[in-house]
Amino acid sequence: MISVAEALTHLFNLVEPLSEETVPLRQAAGRVLARDVTASRTQPPFDASSMDGYALRRTEVEPDAMFKVVGEAAAGHAFKGHVGPGQAVRIFTGAPVPDGVDFIAIQEDVTRRGDLITLNRDIGRKDNIRPAGGDFAAGDRVTAPRRLGPSDLALLAAMNIAQVPVIRRPAVALMATGDELVMPGESPGPDQIIASNIFGLAAQLEAEGAEARLLPIARDNAASLKTAFRLAASADLIVTIGGASVGDHDLVAPVAEELGMQQSFYKVAMRPGKPLMAGRLDGTPMIGLPGNPVSALVCGIVFVTPVVRAMQGLPAAPAPQLETRLAAALPPNGPREHYMRAVVDETGLRSFDQQDSSLLSILARANALLMRPPQDPAREIGDKVSYLPL
After folding, report:
1. Could you tell me which residue, 248 or 131, shows the higher pLDDT?
2. Residue 33's CB: how many other CB atoms inside 10 A?
């Protein structure tokens, strides 16, 4: 068996960033920026008023000073005239500041009668002007790689970038295996169960920007598995679920090897998820996950989603970890790294007593996976621990 860190290193060596494509800005949410993009304009493109008020000269600002209003400036409608001494322009938020003025008296600091305004005695000193280029300038960059969120899209739009270079979505073929499985909505036989892992894994992958392709269930015979592998051939990554152990009915590894898979590793020193394997099948990266529901989903978090991120050009790194304090004591850990279902809240982290890898209901109630190193000693309340958020 190898460690989790070693397994991740092997997996990252199996993949590389996919090719670039260009998509409309409206379709770029959640995608990974493939290369730096530059602003084609300056924002704001002119000195702009940050408040509703009156534009005038700072040198003339003093309590009780009077000005004649000679025009108006609104967003999208600049004042085109000249502002002379003793004159002011009514201005609204976002409007271009007229030439020759450098101060906005906010309307709350002004008394107006007809075309005349009088500054109040307690007028503020802030100029209330957003300078041209105060946000960004033409030529400023948004750097890649980065997953584009709402604020990124707003920034790209303001930079007048309508077409966005992104990494192609990884197509991941998900192959559930086993004679015991039927799809949700079907009527299982007396010895069958509902296929569940594939739906949780698909949700994990799609949340990371992948395109999850659910293949028909592959049965426990070589012919069915070979058909499933042929269906998966066009994917960027193949993920099998179940059949990766060494029992008489665990045929994924021998069938994959018969088809030419070059195995990278088999078995990882972790709980749950020991019977994990990986390699290449006709050049396509392949990860074989265990069939137990919790094992498959935990391995999805620990291994598959970091691989999918790396395929999109993001850093090849483990899933992000957080730290907190224990809210309940723990006994010593065994020889394998243990990912325990847990709940973290304002009191700290508390693991569930039941950790059997078949219990999806416990995983659904958890919001964290407590990470325990091999041979971790007993822990007390208040000890600092690491966890993966769910």
Report:
1. 131
2. 23
Spacing of C-alpha 241 from chain mean position: 25
Would you say residue 123 has pLDDT above 90? no
Asked whether the bond before 145 is cis by omega within 30 degrees of 0, the reply is: yes
- Please indicate, yes or no, whether residues 335 and 355 belong to a single structural domain of this protein: yes
C-alpha R_g of the chain: 31
Distance in angstroms (rounded) separating the CA atoms of residues 356 and 354: 6
Tell me the CATH number at 366. 2.40.340.10
Q: For residue 138, what are the contacts with CB-CB under 8 A and spacing of at least 6?
A: 38, 39, 40, 41, 42
Output the domain CATH number for residue 33.
Answer: 3.90.105.10
Strand partners, 370: 340, 387
Check residue 58 and give left, alpha or beta (phi > 0: left; psi -120 to 50: alpha): alpha
Do 193 and 292 share a structural domain?
yes
Return mean pLDDT, the chain.
Answer: 95
Whose tokens are 């890649």? That residue is 144
161 in any annotated domain: yes
Cα gap 242→226, rounded to integer Å: 15
Question: Cβ distance 93 to 128 under 8 Å?
Answer: no
**pTM, full prediction:** 0.88
DSSP 59-118: GG--TT-EEEEEEEEBTTB---S---TTEEEEE-TTPBPPTT--EEEEGGGEEEETTEEE
pLDDT at 247 over 60: no
DSSP 329-374: -BPPP-SSEEEEEEEEETTEEEE-S---TT-HHHHHH-SEEEEE-T
- Give the pLDDT of residue 246: 57
pLDDT digit string (tens) for 71-97?
999 999 999 998 999 999 999 999 999
Neighbours of 293 (CB within 10 A): 20
